[in-house]
Write a structure and sequence with these properties.
heterodimer, A: 660 residues, alpha/beta, Rossmann fold, FAD/NAD(P)-binding domain, five-stranded parallel beta sheet, B: 324 residues, Glutathione S-transferase Yfyf (Class Pi), Chain A, domain 2, 3 domains, three-stranded parallel beta sheet
């Protein structure tokens, strides 16, 4: 066998702490190595050209590149090797950047370790075998989890591109948080007026199937062929019959149900439609408060419904959807303001969250667009906004900026001055982060045109006195304590990951950060992909994001899905388990340990059993091969002999160094 | 079985706040909590030590922790939040090797191992609890409207004190409610009274203490109940100075929570030393008594009205609400 080795400088990334020339020189002495060199950037075009040319000129059978992590450039070099006429699996990569150069400054020992890693790669390559990928059919459908503005946008774009879309939403209507907003910044557009047409489109598009009150229960399969079990929680209303007339809502006697859509500012009924633009416009029974379902009495809605859609015996349903790709667009939750005891949140009724205030501003909200204090219904003349509640606060475990609170606070302050011209609005802030298009100008308008008082400083305490809420804080520009007697205090609550986000991430086998936000594959260059092929991200599930950013990412995710599913067949990874049938004793242990259900037992003509790998389902994790008592199952490209070659190389090196 | 609970009185409690010490001991005895004094205890360092030298303040507190350790006490309670902060801070900082070395140099001997320090309030709240206290109450403080004032350091910094809500503490509220008192919704539970600034900046103390008293008054409290000897001194002994600065004449008394607890437990005056308060508690108790009697009458009238079939008129119902 003829092996070539290329050691990369990676500019100074590797060369600063590893003597790459010494590594190349040492590699020339390894068995079967006929050529070894170093290169400034192996991944660059000249680097790859050199590699290809050397393979042809020296008639090499395999190549080792010692450079960065295989996650960066394994594919780059595999393609280069293939272009030069070799099988792409006759290539090994030694990671001497992340595993060596970046973690130690000791040049001598770094050089030794880099040499050891190259030796291991060479020994493995000596027993590597060419592998060939197989192709498989793909499902030209996409499942989108979350029906907020990101999910809707992704659904519409995918449907436009000719894909069938399954949209799974936890609530009874799509629209998400944007449907709750009164206006959007910086244009002060009516939020639901701009979102409404998209919601209608999503509801009417024949390519889009909506699963409402639904959650993803289980995900199996792989890119191109995912199988997703979706639990559809029962609505107790047959939606095929319900016309959304609202008669049930009018007659329901259970009228003290906290209205979740209105952020519990007001009360609603146990059956109903959350808001006028709800899509689909269908009634749902809140089982917790329904008198019929909790006490067995009532049944008014059943009698009143003109189409007989009410059915108290309806049960949850689990449907299985086969899709080729998945987009997670599960959005965000708001910070629980009750954790901030100093603001009296949860204790004083006139301390409200920004979203509750948004509902009060909305014409279709609980106060019909008239701002009223929750305590006595009076119109507030002084409204104080406190920014960064649950954002940029390490003591609350929320060190990050929530991205859009500065802007919605400016918008709400403007709207306050608009609704109540003789009112005063104060904003207590840390910094103003207005870095979008037209955002800074918008904040300026709030300050200059609308006369909103911006006070730079934190609020220490909010307390009631003589019918007012006294907001006590500092003005760090004046270097003084200030007290503002307010009628209403609005807390600009920050962003948290959506409830259940980590659990969903586990089901989708994608990564999430310490706060529950889903991790993109690369923060700069792969912002919508995840580390699981075929699963993409859109919107605030990946991190705090405002509407335009969420919509942009949703369209980007849709573009990625359309590109992926534009192919009729995808190539499978040949690095999967393979059964040596003549060795298999049919014990079935591998079948029981496989976490993906990728192994089944096949009966031979003589009645004995043998394990068989379902190639498209196998993820190449290797659990079966360590389970097999007779070493009949081997993971391709990571066989026992290949791994042992590496281990032996390492031990031999270890022996040599300890002896000397 | 249960380890013995050490007791560290602190200097204030052997002087200006002797009534806090006396009533604390009496209440604990009545509620079955055994206290073993830390033998030969000395000053914790208090505010003067930590304002000039963190190692010295650590050594002063650590000496007391050593005394406790030598007496076999691994849990020490103190009534004073400032002593508690000093002891807890020293205990936490001693985990740092360099800090420990310097403290040990000052002490001239090895420093103490970890000792758990708690407030008497925490012991009463967690070990006996509101329910346990209620069982022992002989003379409920019915009608007495109290503003529980915790001071700024009883629960803070939260990471060190690890007790109750740092913004809205409730331990004293629940204990006093168990004693039958009415708790007013007092927003200044953890505001600063001015603390030791009475000496260098009296004006600051006057402003801060006046705010607290003013708020308690506007909440309709009969008294401000405290758990800190310095708060008590500022709000009670310095009342003349505070009133003079604010131009008000607030006569509201400022008892320790242990004094009111002792009162409810039916302990004799010798165990409470209410006579040591500058502003007498008696008028507040009298006002509460009269209010309670009025409520009683209103309830009877309401009851009578109901039994005779007539609707109770608005007045008694309103009275009832304020009795609740």
């Amino acid at each position: 066998m003829r092996i070539g080795v290329m050691v990369c400088h990676c500019g100074n990334n590797i060369a600063a702490t590893v003597d790459v020339e010494a590594v190349a020189a040492a590699a020339r002495e390894f068995p079967d190595v006929v050529y070894a060199t170093d290169h400034m950037y192996a991944c660059s075009d000249p680097g790859q050209k050199t590699l290809e040319q050397t393979i042809r000129d020296l008639k090499l059978d395999g190549v080792v590149v010692a450079s960065c992590s295989p996650r960066m450039h394994e594919l780059t070099f595999r393609r280069a090797v293939e272009r030069a006429g070799l099988n792409r699996y006759m290539f090994e990569m030694a990671n001497i950047r992340e595993h060596v150069a970046w973690i130690s400054l000791d040049r001598k020992r770094n050089t030794q370790k880099a040499t050891d890693l190259v030796r291991m790669a060479v020994e493995k390559l000596r027993v590597d075998r060419p592998l060939t990928a197989k192709s498989f059919d793909v499902q030209k459908r996409v499942l989108i989890v979350g029906g907020g503005v990101a999910g809707i946008q992704a659904a519409l774009d995918c449907a436009d591109g000719g894909l069938d879309v399954v949209l799974v939403e936890r609530k009874s209507s799509i629209g998400g948080i944007m449907s709750k907003l009164d206006k959007t910044f910086p244009t002060v557009d009516c939020s639901v007026c701009v979102l409404g047409p998209k919601m209608v489109d999503a509801g009417q598009n024949p390519r889009i199937t909506l699963h409402m009150l639904s959650e993803v229960e289980e995900v199996s399969g792989y890119v191109g062929n995912f199988e997703v079990k979706v639990r559809k929680h029962t609505t107790y209303v047959d939606w095929t019959k319900c016309t959304g007339c609202g008669a049930c809502e009018e007659k329901c006697p259970s009228r003290k149900v906290p209205d979740a859509f209105n952020e519990n500012v007001s009360l609603t009924t146990a059956i109903g439609i959350p808001f006028p633009q709800a899509t689909p416009k269908r009634a749902t029974i809140n089982a917790e408060h329904c008198l019929r379902l909790t006490k067995g009495k009532c049944g008014v809605c059943e009698k009143i419904c003109p189409t007989g859609a009410i059915d108290y015996d309806l049960k949850d349903e689990v449907v299985t959807e086969k899709v080729g790709a998945i987009i997670a667009a599960t959005g965000l939750n708001l910070f629980d303001h009750r954790k901030c005891g100093e603001y009296g949140a949860g204790r004083y009724p006139d301390v409200v969250t920004s979203l509750a205030y948004e509902r009060m501003l909305s014409a279709s909200g609980p106060t019909a667009g008239h701002i009223k204090r929750p305590s006595d219904g009076a119109e507030p003349k002084t409204v104080v906004f406190i920014a960064c509640v649950g954002s940029r606060d390490r003591s609350l475990g929320r060190p990050y900026c929530s991205n859009f609170c500065c802007m919605y606070t400016a918008k709400q302050a403007i709207l306050t001055r608009d609704h109540i011209p003789d009112s005063k609005a104060y904003v207590f802030y840390m910094d103003i982060r207005a870095n979008g298009k037209g955002y800074e100008e918008f904040v300026r308008r709030a300050q200059e045109e609308y006369g909103v008082e911006y006070v730079r400083g934190r609020v220490a305490q909010v307390y009631p006195k003589d019918g007012k809420l006294i907001v006590r804080g500092t003005d760090t520009l004046l270097g003084q304590q200030v007290e503002v007697p307010a009628d209403l205090v609005v807390l600009a609550v920050g962003v948290e990951a959506a409830k259940g986000a980590p659990e969903l991430a586990e089901k989708l086998r994608i990564s999430y950060d310490a706060y529950g936000f889903f991790m993109e594959s690369h923060p700069k260059l792969r912002p919508v992909e995840t580390n699981t092929v075929g699963v993409f991200l859109a919107g605030a599930c990946q991190g705090p994001k405002d509407i335009p950013a969420s919509v942009a990412q949703a369209s980007a995710a849709a573009g990625k899905v359309l590109a992926l599913l534009s192919k009729d067949k995808l190539e499978s990874d040949p690095q999967i388990a393979q059964v040596a049938t003549n060795r298999c004793i049919g014990c079935g242990k591998c079948e029981r340990t496989c976490p993906f259900g990728a192994i089944r037992m096949r009966e031979l003509r003589d009645g004995s059993k043998r394990a068989e790998v379902v190639e498209t389902v196998c993820q190449g994790c290797g659990i079966c091969s360590v389970t097999c008592p007779v070493r009949a199952i081997q993971l391709q490209h990571f066989t026992d002999s290949q791994l042992l070659a590496e281990v032996n190389a390492l031990c031999r090196i270890w022996d040599e160094t300890t002896e000397s | 079985m249960k380890a013995t609970l050490g007791y560290y009185p602190g200097c204030s409690q052997s002087g200006t706040a002797a009534e806090y010490d006396i009533s604390t001991r009496a209440c604990c005895k009545a509620l079955g909590i055994g206290l073993t004094d830390v033998p030969d205890w000395t000053c914790c360092g208090s505010t003067p030590a930590h304002t000039v030298d963190h190692h010295l303040s650590g050594a002063l507190a650590a000496r007391n922790l050593l005394q406790a350790e030598a007496a076999g006490l691994d849990r020490v309670a103190t009534p004073c939040p400032s002593c508690l902060a000093a002891l807890k801070t020293a205990d936490a900082r001693l985990a740092d090797e360099t800090y420990r070395a310097e403290v040990e140099r000052l002490l001239g001997r090895p420093g103490p191992g970890p000792v758990e320090c708690v407030s008497v309030l925490q012991v009463l709240y967690e070990q006996v609890g509101a329910g346990g206290i209620q069982k022992h109450v002989k003379r409920p403080l019915a009608g007495l409207r109290v503003a529980p004032y915790y001071g700024c350091i009883m629960n803070r910094p939260p990471g060190l004190m690890l007790f109750d809500d740092p913004e809205n503490p409730v331990a004293m509220d629940e204990i006093l409610a168990a004693c039958g008192a009415t708790i007013v919704d007092f927003p200044f539970k953890t505001e600063c009274c001015g603390a030791a600034f009475g000496m260098p900046r009296l004006d600051m103390l006057q402003r801060l203490s006046a705010r607290i008293l003013d708020m308690a008054q506007s909440c309709g409290a009969d008294c401000v109940v405290v758990a800190c000897p310095l708060c008590q001194m500022n709000l009670d002994l310095r009342r003349g100075q505070v009133n003079a600065a604010s131009g008000q004449d607030i006569r509201m008394p400022v008892p320790y929570f242990t004094q009111l607890l002792g009162l409810a437990l039916g302990l004799p005056e010798a165990d409470l030393r209410l006579d040591k308060l500058v502003l007498p508690l008696a008028p507040a108790l009298e006002a509460a008594h009269l209010r309670e009697q009025a409520c009683e009458r209103a309830r009877e009238a309401g009851h009578a009205a109901k039994t005779t079939g007539g609707k109770p008129d608005g007045a008694p119902a309103k009275e009832d609400a304020s009795c609740a």
